[in-house]
Amino acid sequence: MYASILDNIPRLPVSQWMTNFINWLTQNLSWLFGSIREGGSWIMDGLSDFLAIIPPVLFIIILVALAFYASGKKWGLPTFSLVGLLYIYNQGLWEPLMYTLSLVIVASLLSIIIGVPLGIWMAKSKFANIVLSPALDFMQTMPAFVYLIPAVAFFGIGMVPGVLSAVIFALPPTVRFTNLGIRQVPEEMVEASESFGSTSSQKLFKVELPLAKSTIMAGINQTVLLALSMVVIASMIGAPGLGENVISALQRAAIGPGFVSGFALVILAIILDRILQGFNKN
Amino acid sequence: MTTKVEVQNLVKVFGKKERQAMELVRKGHSKNDILEKTGATVGVNQASFKVNQGEIFVIMGLSGSGKSTLVRLLNRLIEPTEGHILIDGEDISDMDKEALRRVRREKISMVFQNFGLFPHRTILENTEYGLEVQGVAKEERQKKAEIALENAGLLPYKDQYPNQLSGGMQQRVGLARALANDPEILLMDESFSALDPLIRRDMQDELLQMQETMNKTIIFITHDLNESLRIGDRIAIMKDGEVVQIGTGEDILTNPANEYVERFVEDVDRSKVLTAENIMMRPQFLREGKSGPRVALQRMRAEGLSSMLVINDQQILKGYVTDKEILEAVQNGKTDFEGILHTDIPKVSKGTLVNELYDVIQDSQTPVAVVDKNDKLEGIIIRSLIIGALAKDREEESIDVR
Fold first, then answer.
1. β pairing state of B285-287 and B307-311
2. By CB count within 10 A, which of A77, B54, B324, B373 is most buried?
3. Residue A156's pLDDT is what?
4. Are residues B215 and B349 in the same domain?
5. Do residues B193 and B65 share a domain?
6. Contacting residues of A for B187, CB less than 8 Å apart
């Protein structure tokens, strides 16, 4: 190592700052995080319990019917769904599948509930665009593992920190596509709407959102898939589900079990993706 | 005549150095000059005019002349930089949002160049949009929208979507939508420019016909001189954001205010060689086998015609009948046109030049039929149309010579 003039600058304690910041948040907002964890667990447990009491046969029938309808009454996707779900059941992964599914559903719903309004705000306000754009870049490029650390600090381990880190990771596409979709509405449509004396909300709900719908749906599709991938990573902090099996296989270098669960995740991803795309097209 | 819309010194500057540009505008600098000095674009430069109640006021100019900006300033789709817009004496330019919304809902409607129909709504839902945003109850607004569509002859299409209709029909919907909430002022931004020429003429005719009964105040934007002359009571010509001349079509053709207007007028006319297609009318005809002498008599009376064309089911021209002989046929109790159908009708094609038509019609007692190569009837030309067109031609020649 050679000495450089740059060495004269003392190392900035960025790591210390972040630690202090997170600690400060943990101590001062513990009441908030506590209640989020309580409420979150209640919802998560409720949903996964509900999914678990649906008999697997009925569940498979429902999903295959959904696939049939979404793919425009063709047989490819329903057949794939049937075989895929039977495989998952056959490998004894039904319970983890239900956990993963409930994590994905809750994380996606939260992302949509937060993301669509943010996207609308971005499309309408220059200020929001300037503030949110770099924030979204940050959320997407920061390695997903890094979110897990403060998530554990705030919420302990389990489903709730898993869902929340998945939301942070999966939120950006919905925000971006909503923003894009609304900006892409042809100028003449906006003018026509305004020329009849629409209020801003009439313009938004009667013209802009309907015309931006398919773009927004494409963003939501992305969000669901990202949520799924993050849910697997979140197993590292104790989120139950298929990811748990993958992580434990990784720790034991167990090749077979790793792939068995990996296939299950791929099957779930394909089914979710195609069904969402199908509904968007119809 | 009462003034409906009054525009006073209206200016729109686009760009960052608005104030600097405004100063130059006041000093009377030109658009190019201001662009060079400040980088700001002057869209509309101190426009002033008055539009009377019940008038069709045409604003004409080439692209980039600021006419589309001007019309959007009138309902503040674009915010004016300076100046006033008075509607019934009320100043639109300094209204708050709520008051402006009320004016847009009750007084002004707009028809767009590319129709501006919402693709996700049916024709009926499009038509009721203006009433819907006003909060009119569903049943009532549907009824009003259906009346507007009925008037445009589009009621059968009410449950279709805009992309299922042809351009001409879409613009009829655009017009019906604008009329559904019964506005006092209609802004039409190049509304017929996207349509092909024959349909454009039909739409112009329909607009004029409707205007006879509606008596709205219409501000119509176009780049087409012939369209302006056809529908405009008065015409304002714009160049570089300025209104360079206002007057009737006659005024503008005979006394162009400056070289620009003169060139405009000349260019447009020279490029236009009139053919039968340009001047032909929609024919009144009888269908062989479906209508007999009684129907013929009734229709000729109602429409004041002395003769009518007869076609068959395939639109093929068979000949014409005259009122005298029809009357006799009715008195003799005949039920078809046998024996009174004349076949000596002059026929021309759509491409026939007006000058040639003159020779054809001079020797003829009947109108001239415009047919395609299979004798399918496409239009009709009567003497006065040719004389009108030729007279205009002569007039222009004399302008050229001068």
1. parallel
2. A77
3. 82
4. no
5. yes
6. 195
> Does residue B92 contact residue B85 with C-beta atoms inside 8 Å?
yes
Summarize pLDDT for B269-289 with one digit per residue, the tens: 443 456 777 778 887 788 887
Is residue B142's pLDDT more than 50? Answer: yes
Question: For A233, which DSSP code?
Answer: H
**Whether residues B39 and B85 fall in one domain:** yes
Share of chain A above pLDDT 90, in %: 45
The last residue of a domain, from among B218, B253, B270: B270
Residues of B (44-83) whose Cβ lies below 8 Å from A: 72, 75, 77
Same domain, B101 and B236: yes
Cβ contact, residue pair A191, B72, below 8 Å: yes
pLDDT of residue B391: 61
Gap between the Cα atoms of A10 and A23, Å rounded: 24
Average pLDDT, rounded, for chain B: 85
Residue B150 lies in a domain: no
Q: What kind of architecture, by CATH, is found in domain A23-281?
A: Orthogonal Bundle (1.10)
* Alpha-carbon dihedral B133, B139, B142, B148, rounded to 10 degrees: -100
- Cβ count within 10 A of residue B328: 12
Nearest to B104 among A197, A206, A210 (CB): A197
CATH code of the domain covering residue B101: 3.40.50.300
pLDDT in tens, A148-173: 888 888 888 888 888 888 898 899 99
Contact (CB<8Å) A210/B120: yes
CA distance B162 to chain A (A): 13
Residues B352-364 have pLDDT tens digits of 777 677 777 777 7
* B105 vs A contacts (CB less than 8 Å): 196-197
Q: Which of A15-19, A176-180, B92-96, B223-227 has the lowest mean pLDDT?
A: B223-227
- B5 has which bridge partners? B51, B87
Percent of chain B predicted with pLDDT > 70: 93
B283 part of a folded domain: yes
Q: Which of B106, B116, B181 minimises the CB distance to A192?
A: B116
Assess B99–A contact: CB distance below 8 Å, yes or no: no
Please return the burial class of A130, using the count of CB atoms within 10 Å of its CB with bins 0-12, 13-18 and 19+: exposed
Q: Which residue shows structure tokens 């956990």?
A: A99
Q: Which domain, by its residues, includes B380?
A: 276-388
User: What tens digit of pLDDT does each residue of A196-249 get?
Assistant: 999 999 999 999 999 999 999 999 999 999 999 888 888 888 888 888 888 888
- Chain A hits for B120, CB-CB cut-off 8 Å, are 210-211, 213
Structure tokens at A145: 């593992």
Q: Which two tokens stand for residue A272?
A: 């979710």
